[in-house]
Prior knowledge:
Blueprint: H1 10-18, H2 25-28, H3 31-50, H4 54-67, E1 71-72, E2 84-89, E3 93-98, E4 108-114, E5 119-130, E6 133-141, E7 154-161, E8 167-172, E9 182-183, E10 210-213, H5 225-238, E11 248-254, E12 259-261, E13 267-270, H6 273-288, E14 295-301, H7 318-329, H8 334-339, E15 342-346, E16 349-350, E17 372-375, E18 379-380, H9 391-403, E19 408-410, E20 420-421, H10 425-429, E21 434-439, E22 441-442, E23 450-453, H11 454-469
Parallel strand pairs: 1-2, 4-14, 4-15, 15-21, 16-22, 17-19
Antiparallel strand pairs: 2-3, 3-14, 5-6, 5-11, 6-10, 7-8, 7-11, 9-10, 12-13, 13-23, 17-21, 18-20
Helix pairs in contact: 3-11, 6-11
This protein binds manganese (II) ion (2 copies).
Amino acid sequence: MENNDKEMTLGEKLEKKLLIKRKNGVLRADEETIDKADGYNEDYKAFLNTAKTEREAVEEIVKRAKAAGFSKFEYGKKYSAGEKFYFVNRGKAVILTVMGKKDISEGIRLAAAHIDSPRLDMKQNPLYEDKELGYFKTHYYGGIKKYQWPTVPLSLHGVIVKADGNSVRVRIGEDEGDPVFVITDILPHLAESQMKRPAPQLIRGEELNILVGSRPFRDDKVSQKVKLNIMAILNEKYGIVEADLVSAELEAVPAFKACDVGFDRSMVGSYGQDDRVCAYAALKAIFDADAPEYTSMTVLTDKEETGSDGNTVLNSSYLPYFINDLAKVYGAEGYNVMSRSECLSADVNAAVDPTFIEPFEVRNCSHINYGVVATKFTGARGKSGTSDASAEFVGRIRNLFDKQGIIWQTGELGKVDGGGGGTVAQFVANLDFDVIDLGVPVLSMHAPFEVTSKLDNFMCYKAIKVFFEDK
Length: 471
Ligand code: MN
Ligand code: MN
């Protein structure tokens, strides 16, 4: 029981008035909110299972967007308030827009998240045979601890473009009864020399070879019988030859499905929550935006995990081009629109891990179940590569969240000298938006199986929703 004001001492009164009181978000939320959060995460898990790569995410998002009343963006069309449309960039990034009541020249509200996740990409000449076993060579994508990836069942996703220009889609290892693939590791009995390697080399990049077959083709005239047999299967299934793998994008990801974690089912465990947890939140929020005051946009982008270089990333020009095209129709200049715009850069943060407490500065790092994380600045060691939201913009977002009952916390990616990292926030800030980082705390970030809190995930969606709805 809390003391009422009459029984409080002066110190207690001052404490209540002057000091921040941290409290677990579950204890701050009512039962109804917890129930809603649980419900929200059911569909989130389904989304994770369908959208395991950036291409699959875009396909699923477009499918859902159409069902939610979004139509394909038409260049030069003058949209009226409440109209909803989407624009796809090369099948790997998507912008969803709901026109606002205010003129676009007054600025837009943007939520940005990424839909790529750390994984293993196949090399251009992936298939080989060694000691009568068939393998795919990989080049890992994004920042991974390589030792985490062997002995994990993997599925294969992507596209193969054939010599005639036609392409085939690949998705094996996800459906019931599908085969999976795996990287092997040496048994402990024989791991003496491996165990002496420094951790980053416990498994080396060139040891991340995926086992893809073992049965030889029955023909004594052939030298590489296992490889030929695998290629014969691929030819039968997809109509491809080995040379077609040169023009392919094949990605191996963990084959397991998203599920609840814990006796209390309070958490979600899955591959690829960085950053599909925020992508899903931003998607749901834009679906809810009905004739908002300001034109609202969700951009879900690619290759954040490799540093945002390329033509499908937020450091490229596709977003400003799109805004320019849209602004022009209303007689506005794109740069004027962006200068008056605000962005929530929605990406995950590192949750304090009690088992590995050393890298965290617990007063400023984010905690599981303490709500969505608003991070003023990112970057590493002296804010290198930072996006640093102004005090004014943090103040505006803080007041908005508090007014709307959002359960939120502040965050920082570990100790100052501990490392660090950035998000797409800096690229949007470079376009002259006001930007703040927003996201959810994650345990085991970038591992094959990442953990988030259902309440935090739900609050991320709620935070973006009130941002779009704000007048
Ligand atoms: Mn991320
Ligand atoms: Mn990441």
